[in-house]
Queue: 2 jobs
Job 1
Amino acid sequence: MGIDAYERVEPLRGCVNDVDALEALFLDRLSVPAEAITKLVAPHPGSSRRSRVPEERATAERLRAALEVLAGDRVGAGDRVFIHYSGHGTQVSPRGTRTTREALVPVDALAGGSLLFDDEVNDVLRRIAARTGDLTVVLDCCCSAGATRSALRPEDSAIRFCPVDDDPDLLSPVSLRGGGELDAGLLSSFDPSDPGFLVVASAQSSEPAHEGLDAGGIRHGAFTAALLDLLAREPDERIHALRWTDVWQALRARVTSSFPSQHPCLLGRRERRLFGGPFRRQDPGYPVSEIDGEYQIHAGALVGLGPGATVAIYGPTPEVFPPLHSPEDLGARRGLLRVESATLSSAMAVPVGGAFRVGEGARGRLVKPGKMDALVVGLDPFDDELARWLSAEGPFSVVPAEGRGERAWEVFVGRSPDGRRWIGDVVYGLDAAGSEGEAPLAWVPGEDRHALLRALLHYARYNLPLRLVRRCHDWPGILRMRVLDARNVGELAPEELADPPLPEAEPDPGRRYRYRVVDGEPVCFSVENRSSTPIFAQVINCAASGRVELLGQTQLEVAPWRRQAFWLRGHLGRAFSCRVSAGRSSNVDRLVVVGTTSPEVDFGYLRVKESFEEASRGARRDMLLDEEAPAERWTATMVAVEIVRDVGRP
C-alpha cells in the first residue's frame, strides 16, 4: 500500500516509490509470483512509472477489503503474509475526550472515505495471525508505534503525518462507541515480546516518520530506503534466510543518523526472517557491533554491564546459550570483551586476550559483572567455603549477614531449624535483619549447592528492576504511581479511560506497604509526570513468585503535568487482576515504574517468565532479553502492594 496523491491532505512523494521498489524485490529477487501480490496505490497524475502487477486505488474501502481477504479462507496454516504500508499516519483526540487514537490514512480519508483506526487494524491482524503464524507487518508512517551513514539525505524531506481536525464524520465512530475493549493505539494491544507475528514500525507512536531523497535522487520513506539499501548489498541467496536481528542495528542507525527524532521499533521475535519462513527461537543476548576497531554493546549498567564487566561474544549459534563455563559454552564463544565505560543502556568495551572480529549475528551475555554490579549475598550462618564457591560460580559478592546493624546485602540466604536453606530480601524472609518478615521467596534443600546457585542467579535477574529504583535518580520525585480500584470501571465513559476517575486501592492497615488488595480484585495503574518534559514510562511488577512482568505497553508516553493509565495489554478499560501466589496466604508484589526521556528503550530484557521454583529445579534460561540504545535521563519509583486472600470484606 503506497499513497502519495492525497485528496485534501498534504501530498507525499515517496510512498509509491517504496512499494514499486518492493514489487521489484519480490518479483526479481524473491521469485514471488505476480498473482500473489495485491497492490493498492495512489500515484500523482502523470507520474512516469510502470507497475508489473495489477493495482487499484488505495481507498478506505479497498484497504479494508484487501486486509479482510488475508483474514479469510485465502490464507492457511504455513502461508507467508507480508503487509507493507507507506503513507500518512495520524493521531486524533475525539472531541470532549483526553484519549488519543491512532489511524492509517487512506487516499480518500478526508474526501468521503474514512480513517482506519487502531482497533480495526489490530483486530484484523489478530484474525490474520489466527490463520497463519507467518505474518510480517511493516508500517512506514507516523504514529506507527558496517557503516552508520544514512541511505537518505534530510534535504527536501517531508513528514508522513496527516493532521485531522475535529471532523464529526471521521471521529464519531470512535467517540460514540461504548463498551468492549478499546485499543490505546496502533499495535499497542499486543505482547511486545512476541505477539505471534512480527510488526515493524518506522517510528514510535509519538514521533514523525520522514521521507527524503536517496543517493540516486529518488524519494523514499527513511525506513524503507534504509531497508532497500541494506538488501541491495546482500546476495540473492542470503535474502531468503536474512533475519531481522541480522539487520536491525544497522537499520536503526541509518534512519536516526539523518533524522534523530525518528526511532524505528519492532514488536515480536527478531529471529523471524525478513520475508517469512521457518525460523528457530534464539536467546537474543546483547546486540554487539564493531565500528572502526571499537566494540559497542547495546546494553549497559541496567543489566550489570558497568565498568569492569566481562561479556562473552557468540555468533548465531547455539540458539540457546549453554550453561556458563561449560565445555559447550567455551567452545561456542568468539571472544571476550571487558567493559571500559557504560551508560545505563550502552557500553564501550575492549577485547580480552587480543582483538577479534565479532562477526555476523554477534550477541553477548554477561560472564562476570563489574565490581559495583555484583549481587551482594548475605549468608547466615556464614560458611567461608560455600561463600568462595558461590563467588566463583556466579556474579556474587558473598558477605556474612549475622550481627550487622545495617543491611549490607541485597539478597539473604538463611537456614531454617529443619536444615533447609531459604532465600529472602528486604521484604521476604523469616525475620531476617531489615526484612518485613514475609514467607521466604524460595526454599532450597539444605545441601543442594547447585539448586541454591540457580535460585541466586534467578534472583540476580529478578533484582534488576528493584535496582532501578536505587540507581535512577536523575529526576527524583518526578514520577508518581497510584493503584486504582477498577471494580466500577464499567460505569465509566470511553473517553474517561485514559485518565480514569477511579478511587485509589485501600491502604495497608499495618502501614508496612502502600496498598492492600484482595485476591482477584481488579486494578489499573495511574502514572503521573510531574515535570515539563515528556516521560516514556514502563510499569514492571516484581511478583512474589519470582516472575517479572511488564504491565501494559513496552513504553507509554506521559505528557508533561499529566497522568496516564496502564491497562492490561493496552486495552482501555481492561483491568489487571491481583492474585495470591500458589502456596501462600498472601504476598507482596513490588510495582516499579521506570521513566526515561528516550522513546526507544526496550525493557523486554527485564521480563522473567520463570518462577523461583522453576529456576531452582533448573527449568530456566541464563540469558536476559536484549536492550538497545542509550537513554539520556532516567527516574524510577516503587509501590509495594500486599495481596491477601481475605480481609473480611463483604
Job 2
Amino acid sequence: MSDTRDLLIELGTEELPPTSLAKLSAAFAEHFSAQLIQAGLEFAQIKPYASPRRLALVVESLQVSQADRQIERRGPAVTAAFDEEGNPTKALVGFAGSCGVSVDDLETTETDKGAWLVFRQLQAGEATANLLPGMIEQALHLLPIAKRMRWGALPGEFVRPVHWLVVLFGEEVVPCQLLGVTSGRDTLGHRFHHPDKICIATPATYAPQLQTEGHVMVDMTARREAIRGQVMELARQLGGEAVINPDLLDEVTGLVEWPCALSGSFDPKFLALPAEALISSMEGHQKYFAVRAADGQLLPNFITVSNIESRDPAQVVAGNERVILPRLSDAAFFWDTDRKSPLAARAEQLKTIVFQHQLGSLYDKSQRVAKLAEQLAKWLGADAALAGRAAELAKCDLVTEMVGEFPELQGIMGRYYAQLDGENPELAEAIDEQYLPRFAGDKLPETRTGQILAIAEKLDTLVGLFGIGQPPSGVKDPFALRRAALGMLRIIIERELDIDLLKMLQYAETNLQKVLTESNSSQAVMHYCYERLRAYVTEQGFRPDEYEAVLAVQPVRPLDFMQRLRAVADFRGLPEAEALAAANKRIGNILRKNNDHSDDIAVDVTLLQDEAEKALAAKLTDVTEALTPLMVNADYAASLSLLATLRTTIDSFFDEVMVMADDPAIRRNRLALLNRLRALFLGVADISSLQA
C-alpha cells in the first residue's frame, strides 16, 4: 500500500434521535466505506463512533491518493477510420478531438475482430483530500432518515441542526463545507461537564481526548457496556437483578454521553399491580430499569441513567422518584378501572375498531378466528369450545385503559383480566400466547389452546390480506405477513402439530368468502408459506436442493414436510445416494419424453424378456411390500434406506436393457416399470433434485 494516513470525520449536531442512533452510525460507516471502495482507495478499517450530539468515523491507514491507472478508449475500426485516399474520416477526427489529441497520437490495436484505433493515457490518481468532501456528502445523503428537515436559513437538510464539522486527514484539516458548517479540528465536549472546544490533534487521539478532556464516551459499544455494568452492579447492591430490555439499553445509550447510573425507590403498594404494567411504566415513560428479586418478584426500586455526574446525586434521585409516582398512579388507576368490567363485556366495543376496511372490524375478525380455532381444535382432538371462547375474548383487552396506554401489553393484560374473571387457566394463557412468536427466535405457545389460537389468528390474517389483493410487496409488509407465516410454520413444526395446511387455508378462505376479491387465495398463501419455509430450513442447516426435492412432491403438512426433509438429508449421506439421484433424473427425463400415460398401465410380467428387467420387477415387488408399513408410519428415513438397496438392480437394468424397444408393447411395459420405480421414490421426495 502507498503512503497512508488516518482520517477522522465528525458531524456535531443537536441531540440525535436515540432509538435511531445505532442505525445511523452503522449506515454512515457502511456508505462511506462503499464510497472509498468505489474510488479505489485502500484502508485498514473503519471505526464508527456515535453519541447523542455526534456521528463520527475514524478510517485507519487510508491511502493519501488513488493509484495511477492506464485508461484506454477504443475508437473506430481502421477500415472505417480512413477514406480511400488515406485521409482521416470525420469519425476518426471527432474521436481524436474528444480525447484531446491529434490523429497521430492514437495507437492501433489488433483483435480477433480486426484492427482498431485506440487512445491510451496514464491517468494520475486523484489526491484523497480532494475526493473526501463529495464522499462525505454522499454518505450523509444516503443515511436512513425518514424525514429530513431544513433549519432556518442553513443550507441542506438533515435530521437535526448541524453545529460543527471535523475532517482531519492525518494532522491536516481537509477544507470542506457541508450542511452550513465549515470543517475544522475543534469538537465540543459534554454539554454540561465540558461545553468548551477541544482541539483534536490526530484521528488516533479523537476518542481518548473526548473521554479524558470532554467527559464524552464516544464509543457507542463501550458506552452501552458501561451502562449495562453500572446498572447490573446497582441492582446487585439492591439485592436483586436488573431487568435489562435490549431495546431500552440501546435507547439509553443513545440518550447519554457520560452515563452515571443511580437507584431510586417507590411505594411498595404499587407491587400489587401486574409486574409487566410496572415495567412498562418505568421503561416506556421514564427509561428506567426495573429490578427483580431472586424469586422473580419485582423490588420497589428502579435504576435511572443520568447524563451528568452530579455533585448531589441524592437530589437527582429524589427528582426521579417524584416523577415516577404519577406514572405508577396512572397505571394503578387503569388497573382498577379495567377490573370493573369483565373481558367478555368488552366484545361489543371491538365493532368500533377497524382491522382492515375490506375485512371488517376486530369483532368480525374475532368471530372468524373463533370458527377457525374450533375447527382446528377438532382436527387436533383438542377442546373446540375452549378454543372458540379463547378466540372470542382474544382481542377484548385492546379496548382496556391499560392497553390503551401501553400497547405492548396486549395479550398480557388479557391474560390477567381473564384470570380475574375466572376463565379457564389455559384460555387465559392462550390470550397472551396468541401473539407468539413476536420476533425471530422468540418462544412459542406452550398450551394447546394457545397454539391453536395463534395459528388461527395468523391464518385469518394471511388468507384475508392475500384474498383482497394485498400481499407483501418488496419491503412493504404493513400487516407483518412474513412474520405471521413463519411464526405459524414454527408453531406447527416445533410443537409437532400434524396439520394439513392446505385444508386449514381452504377453511379460512371459506370463512372469508363474502369479502374476498381474489380467487384461490388459499393456494397463493400456501405457496407464500412454503417460500418462508425455505428460509427457515436453510437456517436449520438443510441444503437448497434437499428442500427442492421435498417441495417437488408438494406435501400439504408442514410437519410431514420436515420429516421428509430430514430423511432426504440422511439419504444424501448414503454411498448409493449419488448414483440413485442420477438414475432418478435419467428415469424422469425418459418418462417426460415419452409421455404415453405409462403410469396408468400395470407391468405385464409376460412381456418381460431380459433377466435384468425381470430382476428389477421382482425387486420392486419385494421392496413395495416392505415399504408399505414404513410409509404408513411416515418412516421416511427407513423408506429411503430400503429404496437405496435398489441401486445395483437399477444399474444392471440400464446397462443391459434397451428401454425404447422397437416393439411398442415391450417399450410401453418397460416405461411402466420405470414409472413404478420412480413412483416409489416420489412417495418420499424427488431425489433427482439432489446435486452431486
